[in-house]
């Protein structure tokens, strides 16, 4: 039997509200992170600024030391985007790294109940806590750039002009986040209401209840005006078709999951 790794429960990652929705399963949490097109990375700018900063970034879980490690193994989070001078300087100054919080979420359905109080979403969310450092090793940086590029469209790195030149590398920053804690939260199933509302015939006869599945659809690729490749490459088209199909299947199947009795909204 294979092992199932979980993030240990700590004060910073233990889910208190609707704890039955929580997951600490490493593979489940990493999957949510990798499926999210945008990660929100939050950090504290320092005592001179009372407000926390949040930057939208692209990121993927991975292991440079063990590239074949799967989502159920301990992994780092590599993020790329606009790394502000403030963020980069803070990451450089700390020997351990800049403390960051990474969040991701996917909405899978609009849950419409008898009362506004019990309306909800079907969703998947994940939060990671860790220490971010700038990747300075050229080999690791190139590996991380390929990892992140291929997370946008698989095999895109090998089907574009690579490797980046020195100028491109110099102007591109990658942060490697060593994860110390993580948690996820998943809501699926149908709408659920209070017993008193189910027994109200006038209410149940006029209010529609159910779930509107929400899923991401990738549209048909549109060529650039200066594009000279006649046909959309198969690696792009097959990804577009497969992504939409999987997203729709998940959202529709999430509605069919039976809710626990204690679930109210």
UniProtKB/TrEMBL annotation:
Gene3D superfamilies in the cross-refs: Electron Transport, Fmn-binding Protein, Chain A
Entries under SUPFAM superfamilies matching the protein: FMN-binding split barrel (SSF50475)
InterPro entries: Pyridox_Oxase-rel (IPR024747), Split_barrel_FMN-bd (IPR012349)
Matches recorded under Pfam families: Pyridox_ox_2 (PF12900)
Domain of life where this protein originates: Eukaryota
Protein name per Swiss-Prot or TrEMBL: Flavin-nucleotide-binding protein
């Amino acid at each position: 039997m294979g092992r199932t790794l979980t993030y240990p429960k700590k004060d910073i990652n233990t889910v208190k509200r609707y704890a039955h929705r929580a997951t600490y399963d490493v593979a489940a949490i990493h999957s949510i992170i990798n499926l999210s097109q945008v990660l929100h990375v939050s950090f504290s700018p320092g005592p001179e600024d009372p407000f926390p900063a949040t930057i939208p970034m692209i990121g993927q879980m991975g292991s440079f030391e063990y590239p074949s490690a799967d989502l159920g193994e301990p992994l780092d989070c590599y993020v790329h985007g606009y790394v502000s001078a403030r963020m980069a300087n803070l990451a450089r100054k700390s020997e351990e790294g800049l403390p960051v919080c990474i969040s991701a979420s996917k909405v899978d359905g609009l849950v419409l109940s008898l009362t506004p109080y019990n309306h909800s979403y079907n969703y998947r969310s994940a939060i990671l806590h860790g220490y971010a450092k700038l990747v300075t090793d050229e080999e690791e940086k190139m590996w991380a750039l390929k990892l992140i590029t291929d997370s946008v469209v698989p095999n895109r790195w090998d089907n574009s002009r690579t490797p980046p030149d020195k100028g491109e590398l110099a102007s591109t920053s990658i942060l490697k986040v060593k994860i110390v804690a993580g948690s996820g939260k998943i809501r699926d199933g149908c709408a659920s209401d209070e017993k008193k509302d189910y027994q109200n015939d006038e209410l149940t006869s006029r209010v529609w209840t159910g779930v509107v599945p929400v899923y991401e659809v990738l549209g048909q690729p549109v060529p650039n005006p200066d594009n000279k490749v006649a046909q959309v490459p198969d690696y792009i088209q097959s990804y577009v078709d497969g992504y939409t199909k999987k997203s729709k299947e998940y959202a529709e199947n999430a509605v069919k999951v039976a809710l626990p009795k204690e679930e109210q909204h």
